Amino acid sequence: MVLQASRLADVRYDIRGPVLRRARTLEAEGHEILKLNLGNPAPFGMVAPEAVLDHVAASIRASQGYSDARGIAPAREAVARYYQRTGVENVTPDDVFLGNGVSELIVMALQALLNPGDEVLVPSPDYPLWTGAVTLCGGRAVHYRCAGELDWNPDVEHVAAQVSDKTRAIVIINPNNPTGAVYSKDTLEGLLDVARRNDLLVLTDEIYDQILYDGATHYCAAALAPDLPVLTLGGMSKSYRLAGFRSGWLAVSGPREPIAEYLDGLELLANMRLCPNVPAQHAIPAALDGGIDISHLLRPGGRLRDQRDRGWQLLTEIPGVDCYKPAGALYLFPRLDPEVHKIVDDQRMVIDLLEQQHLLLSHGTGFNLPSADHLRVVFLASVEVLEDAIGRLAAFLADYKQ
Q1: Using CA atoms, how far apart are residues 191 and 170, in angstroms rounded to an integer?
Q2: What CATH number should be reported for the domain holding residue 355?
Q3: Helix axes 383-398, 303-316, angle to 10 degrees
Q4: What secondary structure does DSSP assign to 275-325, as a single string?
Q5: CB-based contact 191:137 (threshold 8 Å)
Q6: How many structural domains are present in the chain?
Q7: Pair (314, 280) in one structural domain
Q8: Helix (H) or strand (E) holding 127
Q9: Which domain holds residue 338?
Q10: Residues paired with residue 170 on neighbouring β-strands, in sequence order
């Protein structure tokens, strides 16, 4: 018998766990499943600009060897210029690591940092890879509260109260997945002050930084705190609709001396994987230096804006359901009033929804939310599809009991 490694015992990634396995079984039985569980633009017809794809295709012949372990120079230069335009001081190509998606870089960043028992402050709810990766790397994720009544901004006092002598870093996800919150400047400065007072490394996941609605402003954490070591993560999958290219980056800013040994470890890990996928890296300068504008998707009449608005309207019309209107990203995170919908096991609920309505959504506890009263709905689908999907959800909730 071959058993899994013991270090996986406490690693969870429920948003792709039993629910997705049940969906695959139903598909194999011939059922058509309406999937609003993943922020994957391509299946909904949202694809990258032709100019980016053409540049990648033209670069294939030059992509046959290993690149620098950190990534090709033109892509790292483009990322450095991007953050310089954003107001981040002193980011050079040598401060940029490219990866096979942000996911790989999250794991690398934590592997280089954590010893057994070290703690990392992680938002609740979070994108669950962060919690899983902390655990996989031998650390402990300590969740800080993001509050619905604060438009899902973190409760900074609660964050500060979670710091211990074992805390090594704080994770910021802004704009947030799964809530769609875009953090206020005051909130970010409060989080950064917690890091400053406690000598914490800041890890900030900003992959949705261009997907903003209703005049929301995204503040880059690194630009607000030039005195702090900050690792900013971004990539091509969302704003540039290139999820399958697995092309992400990590940019180091702030003083380097306090983290010099850590950066040596990060470079060691980059060297051990040889290099990121070379053809996909060519998309980065083509996109970042190409002046690609997605504002037409985000303003009134734009596809993402209209889908967000219609999805939010329909969800809030369901009895016993309320929902924050997201200021960024691609997700609605509706709450089911516990007095109306008495849900004990939200994973069981989404499996029952899947089996009865052939609709695939994600359950809130899968994002490390402590209560079983939320769902995540991806609004990448057309308005017509969203109307169908939320109609199925409404019919399901009308008589669902646990």
Answers
A1: 8
A2: 3.90.1150.10
A3: 20
A4: -S-HHHHTHHHHHHTTT---HHHHSTTSHHHHHHHHHHHHHHTSTTEE---
A5: no
A6: 2
A7: no
A8: none
A9: 6-47+296-398
A10: 121, 202
Pairing mode of beta strands 362-363, 375-378: antiparallel
125 with 215, same domain? yes
pLDDT in tens, the chain (402 residues): 877 777 777 776 766 788 999 999 999 999 999 999 999 999 999 888 888 889 898 988 988 899 999 999 999 999 999 999 999 988 999 999 999 999 999 999 999 999 999 999 999 999 999 999 999 999 999 999 999 999 999 999 999 999 999 999 999 999 999 999 999 999 999 999 999 999 999 999 999 999 999 999 999 999 999 999 999 999 999 988 889 889 999 999 999 999 999 999 999 999 999 999 999 999 999 999 876 789 999 999 999 999 999 999 999 999 999 999 999 999 999 999 999 999 999 999 999 999 999 999 999 999 999 999 999 999 999 999 999 999 999 999 999 998
Are the beta carbons of 55 and 384 closer than 8 angstroms? no
Are residue 192 and residue 246 in the same domain, yes or no? yes
Q: Cβ neighbours of residue 36 under 8 Å, at least 6 residues apart? A: 359, 360, 361, 377, 378, 379, 380, 381, 386, 389
Quick one: DSSP state of residue 62? G
CB 235 within 8 A of CB 261: no
Q: Which residues pair with 252 in a beta bridge?
A: 231
In terms of domains, do 32 and 116 share one? no
114 with 144, same domain: the answer is yes
Alpha-carbon distance 101 to 235, whole Å? 7
| Cβ proximity of 246 and 214 under 8 Å | no
The residue type at 300: P
Strand intervals (E) in 53-118: 96-100
Query: 289: exposed, middle or buried (C-beta count within 10 Å: 0-12, 13-18, 19+)?
Result: middle
Domain termination site, one of 265, 288, 311:
288
Angular region, 358: left φ>0, alpha ψ -120 to 50, beta rest: left
Instruction: Write down the pTM of the prediction.
Output: 0.94
Residues in the chain: 402
Q: Is residue 1 part of a domain?
A: no
